[in-house]
Amino acid sequence: MDVTRTVGLDRNDVIAAAKSIYSLVLLLLLWEFVAQYDMVHSYFLPPLSDVLATFYELTADGTMLEHAYLTFRRAMAGLLLACLLGIVVGVLAARNRIMGWFWDPIIEVGYPVPVIALVPVFMFWFGTGDLSKIMLVAVGCFWPVAINARNATREVDENLVWSARMMGTSDRRLLRRVVVPAAAPGIISGVQIALPIALIVTFVFEMVAGGGGLGHLEIQGVRSFESAQVYASLIAIMIVGFTLDRGLRYLRGRLLVWT
Amino acid sequence: MSYADFRLETVAETIPNPFRRVVRFVFEWIPIAIVAGLWELASGTIVSSEILPPPSAVFAVSWELLVSGRLLPHLQVSLYRIGVGLGLSIVVGVALGVGMARVKPIENFFEVFLALIYPVPKAALVPLAILWLGVGTETAILIVFLACLLPIVLNSYNAARNVDRNLIWSARMMGMPAWKLPIKVVVPATIPSILTGIRQAIPIAFIALVSAELIASNRGVGFEILRHGQIGNYTSMFAVLVVISGTAFVAVRGYEWLERRVVTWT
């Protein structure tokens, strides 16, 4: 009796899935084997089973969740702030001549600044707590959001605007009901570009300045020679990155039902 | 709209031709001057000049750091790290991208790893790199390499997938052996996309570099920013920041200029 049929899977699906993950399984087995027999010092590569045990331990006693929550809160608060400001600035810069004149060169100069280099500056300005992290995430995410919002708004079909105006739509309403919805796919792309920046800034800031969070947990592992903790934090970071990426994609699908 | 009068073109038309470009340039960059002016005024009055050093002082120190050559060794180290990391990621990324696109077993083998590292911010791998390579140049190179790898792999993969079949058929017809195809046909047809991938990778390389240098280095521009901040030398901290931003800006613009010069066939 074919087991696969009972779960509604085609045999070919199973073969394809096996083909695409066999290398990972092989690598994980090799990792466990090499580390278990001490071919590599456990400081560099603790056995996979140890890493998973540490991950489970840290998750079970709530440490991991607490740190993940800190990271998540900082990254999301900063990203949200950047979205609010970036979308307003981007849309207005595209629709209003004075705003465009003022913001275009500022965006041009501000975008290429490697924001991560501002970590010491923000530590100095806002301390090492949540505020400095959230502010720097907001600054880093502002540029891609603003640029994408501006470009998407510029590319909105003028016929849409003219038609709406012909039918007597007011300026304010035009922006909210016609321009922003038409530019929404591009605006959301900007937010998707900003998401990894939010995470990078949060992790690096936590590593340099401390104050809890997954980045802090990970660097702490290095400093106390607890390699398993470094790997376990990385698993958590992977999960957080993956969840946020998928979440944003899901949100995009829900927000852009008409596309 | 009532802003109809406020048009660059209408202003510019009243000015004789040779000056137009200059006037346009000045007009376009006035906002930067406004921001810098406000900053200059605010520093020392509203905010202490410790916290927000005036731009004039910051630029003076940047200039002095560059001319006196005190920053040059650090800049050199950082550029070396970026160069090696980015260079490696181009070589490996193109080979991997083209290989995955043309050979199914290669794709089956590597796809899952790329899917796994895709959502991880590469800067989060710095502690792991410290475990393996210690604090210093190798760690920075590894992080730059990993950060730049994905955009280059993705761009070359997509392009190699979509190489015009007629090109391949023609080459085969004219008797080219199969093993020569990747080098003679696929990679050349993929070059514009590879160059796009590299352009996307350059700013990422700078972010990765500075992250690695902030966390795990005792040389390089990222480390210099942190060091000046820690000893309270804030004007110098801002000055190094200006230098690294300027370098990133020049790198991206220089690359775009070079790309336009070199890729003339598209």
List the main descriptive attributes of the protein structure presented here:
heterodimer; A: 259 residues; mainly alpha; MetI-like fold; 2 domains; globular; B: 266 residues; 11 helices; flat
Task: Describe what this molecule looks like in 3D.
Chain B: Its main location: membrane. Chain B: It is a multi-pass membrane protein. The complex is a heterodimer of chains A (259) and B (266). With 259 residues, chain A is mainly alpha-helical. Chain A contains eleven helices and no strands. In chain A, α10 (214-223) runs antiparallel to α11. Chain A is globular and about 75 Å long. By secondary structure, chain B is mainly alpha-helical. Mean pLDDT of chain B is 87; it is low at 1-5.
Radius of gyration of chain A: 24 Å
Gross CATH architecture of the largest domain in chain B: Orthogonal Bundle
Strand content of chain B: under 5%
Structural class based on helices, strands and sheet pairing of chain A: mainly alpha
Low-confidence stretches of chain A: none
| Secondary-structure arrangement, i.e. CATH architecture of the largest domain in chain A | Orthogonal Bundle
Largest interface: A-B, 57 and 57 residues
Report the strand count of chain A.
0
The averaged pLDDT of chain B comes out at: 87
Q: In percent, how much strand structure appears in the residues of chain A?
A: under 5%
String of helices and strands of chain A: HHHHHHHHHHH
The portion of residues assigned to helices of chain A is: over 70%
SSE layout:
The complex is a heterodimer of chains A (259) and B (266).
Chain A (H helix, E strand, L loop, with lengths): L2 H4 L4 H26 L11 H13 L2 H33 L1 H14 L8 H8 L3 H25 L3 H9 L4 H39 L4 H10 L3 H29 L4
Chain B lengths: L7 H6 L3 H26 L12 H14 L3 H31 L1 H14 L8 H8 L3 H25 L3 H9 L7 H35 L5 H10 L3 H29 L4
Entry summary:
The complex is a heterodimer of chains A (259) and B (266). By secondary structure, chain A is mainly alpha-helical.
